[in-house]
C-alpha cells in the first residue's frame, strides 16, 4: 500500500502553501519526503531547481530547509537560548579541535550565532523566558522555541507540521501572525501541514488538498474552498462559507 500516489505540486518562492486533508491523507509523509526522512519510491523532489530526492535528512539544513514537527522535539532541560543555538549548528564551520581553542574565527562565529539567536528571540517575543528551561514553559511557548530553532538555520523553505495543534485561540493567532511575518519580513517560503481551517484560509496563498494519498485540489483558498471534490472530502459545509 502506498501512502502517497502521483502527488505533484510546486510552491512559489515567497509564498505560504498549506497542505490539507483528512487524517491519513499522506500530508506528513509528503513533508517527510521533502525533508529527506522518507525516500520516495518513485518521482523526485526538487528545491530551487536542484534534485534533492536522495539527499539525507542531515544535509537539508545546510541546503536551506528548516522543519518543525507535529510532536514537540525540544530539549526540555536546556534553556530557550541553548535550544535555538542548536539550530545554528549547520551554519558553523568549526571542528572539535578549533572549537576547543575558541579563538579567532571560532570566537567570531560564536558571537555572531548568539547575536542571531537574540534576534530570533526578539522576533518571536520570548525575551522574558530566554533563560528558562524549555520544559517549564507552556505548550504554546515551547512551539515558539521549536519554530525559533528552525529559523536559526536561516532557511529559505520552512516546513511546518501542524504548528497550532493543541493551542488555544490566542496562541493560534500569535502563530499565524509569526508565520505571516516570516514570509513578509524574512522572505522565507512556507509549506505547512495544518488542520485548522481558519489559519489555512486566512494566511495561505496556495492550498493543496490530499485524500487517501492523492491530490484532489490545488489553488487559492477561495478556489479550493469552492471545489466540490474538496467540499465533499474534507471541508463539507464549512467550505461553502469560507
Summarize this structure briefly.
The chain has 11 helices and 8 strands.
Side by side, the strands of the main sheet go 4-5-6-1-7-8
What is the name of the CATH class of the largest domain?
Answer: Alpha Beta
- From the N-terminal CA to the C-terminal CA, the straight-line distance is 34 Å
Order of helices and strands: EHEEHEHHHHEHEHEEHHH
Query: Would you identify the CATH architecture of the largest domain?
Result: 3-Layer(aba) Sandwich
- Structure summary, number of beta strands: 8
Cα radius of gyration in angstroms: 19 Å
CATH superfamily label of the largest domain? P-loop containing nucleotide triphosphate hydrolases
Query: Spans with pLDDT under 50 lasting ≥5 residues?
Result: 95-101, 237-242
How many discrete domains? 2
Task: Describe this structure as you would to a colleague.
There is one protein chain. This protein is of the alpha/beta class and 242 residues long. The chain folds into 2 domains: 1-64 and 155-242, P-loop containing nucleotide triphosphate hydrolases (Rossmann fold, 3-Layer(aba) Sandwich); 76-138 and 145-154, no CATH class. Helix content is 40%, strand content 14%. The chain has helices at 27-34, 60-63, 80-86, 96-101, 105-123, 139-152, 169-184, 197-203, 221-225, 228-235, 238-241; strands at 16-20, 46-47, 50-51, 65-67, 157-161, 189-193, 206-211, 214-219. α3 packs parallel to α6. The chain is globular. The two termini are 34 Å apart. The model is unreliable at 95-101 and 237-242 (pLDDT under 50).
Amino acid at each position: 500500500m502506498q501512502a502517497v500516489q502521483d502527488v505533484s505540486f510546486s510552491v512559489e518562492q515567497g509564498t505560504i502553501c498549506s497542505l490539507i486533508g483528512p487524517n491519513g491523507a499522506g500530508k506528513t509523509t509528503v513533508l517527510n519526503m521533502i525533508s529527506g526522512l522518507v525516500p520516495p519510491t518513485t518521482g523526485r523532489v526538487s528545491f530551487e531547481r536542484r534534485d534533492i530526492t536522495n539527499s539525507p535528512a542531515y544535509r537539508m539544513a545546510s541546503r536551506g530547509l528548516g522543519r518543525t514537527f507535529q510532536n514537540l522535539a525540544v530539549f526540555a532541560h536546556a534553556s530557550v537560548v541553548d535550544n535555538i543555538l542548536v539550530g545554528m549548528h549547520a551554519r558553523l564551520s568549526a571542528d572539535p579541535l578549533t572549537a576547543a581553542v575558541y579563538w579567532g574565527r571560532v570566537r567570531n562565529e560564536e558571537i555572531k550565532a548568539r547575536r542571531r539567536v537574540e534576534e530570533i528571540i526578539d522576533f518571536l517575543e520570548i525575551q522574558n523566558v530566554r533563560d528558562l528551561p524549555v520544559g517549564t514553559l507552556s505548550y504554546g511557548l515551547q512551539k515558539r522555541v521549536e519554530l525559533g530553532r528552525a529559523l536559526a538555520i536561516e532557511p529559505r523553505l520552512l516546513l511546518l507540521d501542524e504548528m497550532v495543534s493543541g493551542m488555544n485561540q490566542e496562541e493560534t493567532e500569535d502563530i499565524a501572525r509569526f508565520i505571516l511575518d516570516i514570509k513578509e519580513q524574512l522572505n522565507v517560503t512556507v509549506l505547512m501541514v495544518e488542520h485548522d481551517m481558519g489559519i489555512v484560509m486566512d494566511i495561505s496563498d496556495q492550498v493543496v488538498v490530499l485524500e487517501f494519498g492523492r491530490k484532489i485540489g490545488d489553488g487559492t483558498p477561495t478556489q479550493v474552498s469552492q471545489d466540490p471534490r474538496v467540499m465533499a472530502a474534507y471541508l463539507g459545509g464549512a467550505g461553502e462559507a469560507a
